[in-house]
Amino acid sequence: MANTTLSPLHRADGSATYAKNGYSVIAAVNGPIEVQRRDELPEEAAVDVAVRPAAGVGGLRERHLESIVQNTLRHVILLSAHPRTLIQFTLQVITSPEDESVTGSLPQPTSNLSVLPALLQASILALVSTSVPISTTLTATLVAVNSNSTLVIDPSVQQIKLASSIHVLAFSSRGDLLVVESEGDFTIDKWEEVHQRAKLICHGDEGDESESESEDVSMDSDDVSKLENVLKEAVETKMAKEQRWKASMG
To answer: What's the Rg (C-alpha) of the chain?
Structure first.
């Protein structure tokens, strides 16, 4: 199950934590704030994303992830509402899953995509806790295809290493595909199967469980219902706390 917290950082305009599948990310959002003239856009807000790894200094891997998250958020935020300003995201990876097959102390390289769903979910949760206008929300999931062509939801580090392909897909609250990133070898038919399964997990579209034929699924049945519920429950919890605070002050 995913664990979420809204507004854990009191000095940021918006913040959130998201933990699932061994990854834990804390996101902070500040904006709209003043932007340097060289980055100023005359008709919309600029979006800046910084991804910090759990250990060490960020490199090409983090720059790649920043580019994906930034492009996604530009489709979510109503940028025209705040022209000539900056909306700044800082995403800190707190923990990442360990590879139990590795006995050495040095971290082993893995796919760039495995942490992407957590980064996207933390970003949208932090954004929801601000006053920045958005056109939609999103949910994201990670799907691997193993050597037997079986779909694995939220695969472990070892499963990712042995997978023939891995895929990250994110959907809007309307069910539109916002992000698709893939690595490895796969056919169009297999990608279509991945797409249908991911949409069912994220958005709950189709309203059936016909896609749950995979024998190797690393998710609880509660998670399969809809990842959208995680976002809704987090927002409802925050609203309930604010209402109790207002009632106590009244």
So the answer is: 19
